[in-house]
């Protein structure tokens, strides 16, 4: 999907083949083995990957995920998307992504710590504050980042807070990072609804996925007055035509671990939920949920891609032909996390902390600027919004490579 999206944009931009190849292929792909002693005494070897897509505009930046299906291809695609995302937002980063093929839900706290520290030690030659900066992703969190920070800092002999972002505030993390991605999604949906002439107090939303991003997107939209009618997670979906009390649902999920069983809403098939009439549909879970089978049946005005790669290329063509759905592409929609990660990195370099209100205000300013650039480019060039967003990122990267030239 990532390669197909790039090729389509590169054709439209008529990129020279030499620049095209240099923009498309990753700068560096690293795979390491991580032997870890488990709690029962056995030693299991895990495979870890890190892809650094480009270093032309600065250090690579991107998450580290723990999941049983992590593969080099997946990580490389995510690194490519992160590259265009950073360039689109005007951040001085290239795209990076990492992952370890494991199931953190079956691992103890100690096993996860030993795995993280071993992976960090294996990656030390390839990471650094000015080389590659990791952040949390699927299956990892601020504690994971704290272990990476400690391992790297112990090796360096002094505290290096800028080696990761998304770490605890007590270790020089930043206020506002936890809710950044979801809040950014909610903000962009609000701004696009306003552009379409839809008042937030009369708007409705459906959210697929209720992890960190989906939860904070729901809370943000509810704060804007948007009626959130449907929410799903991996176990099921709940629906209330009159609107779900998002804060009450959060309390239910914290107690039970799922949206299933929430008393103030009825159960619904998660696939059917995607097809319900609403103003904003927000896929905030996994990739490829909007596909050739269901794209023609969507009844939303806005498709806000909080997840990475939730819409397949064939679904894109269907939505473009329809022309009645405003797509906020993933590299714009979920950029809040990397934008605030950039703010955290800057604070670490300066050794100067910003307040939560400063961080969130700067976040909204960055997102608004990026949204306006994408809309302007789409209208000027007659491109779909995804193509316009990707084109801006590709042009930024290609321009940097062109100016730097080719080392003999």
UniProtKB/TrEMBL annotation:
GO MF terms, alphabetically ordered: glutamate dehydrogenase (NAD+) activity; nucleotide binding
Every Glutamate/phenylalanine/leucine/valine/L-tryptophan dehydrogenase C-terminal domain range: 174-405
InterPro entries in UniProt: Aminoacid_DH-like_N_sf, Glu/Leu/Phe/Val/Trp_DH, Glu/Leu/Phe/Val/Trp_DH_C, Glu/Leu/Phe/Val/Trp_DH_dimer, Glu/Leu/Phe/Val_DH_AS, Glu_DH, NAD(P)-bd_dom_sf, NAD_bind_Glu_DH
PROSITE patterns: GLFV_DEHYDROGENASE
Signal sequence range: none
UniProt-listed SUPFAM superfamilies: Aminoacid dehydrogenase-like, N-terminal domain, NAD(P)-binding Rossmann-fold domains
Binding site for NAD(+): 181, 212
GO process terms (BP): L-glutamate catabolic process
PANTHER family, per database record: GLUTAMATE DEHYDROGENASE (PTHR11606), GLUTAMATE DEHYDROGENASE 1, MITOCHONDRIAL (PTHR11606:SF13)
Family per similarity comment: Belongs to the Glu/Leu/Phe/Val dehydrogenases family.
Name used for this protein in its record: Glutamate dehydrogenase
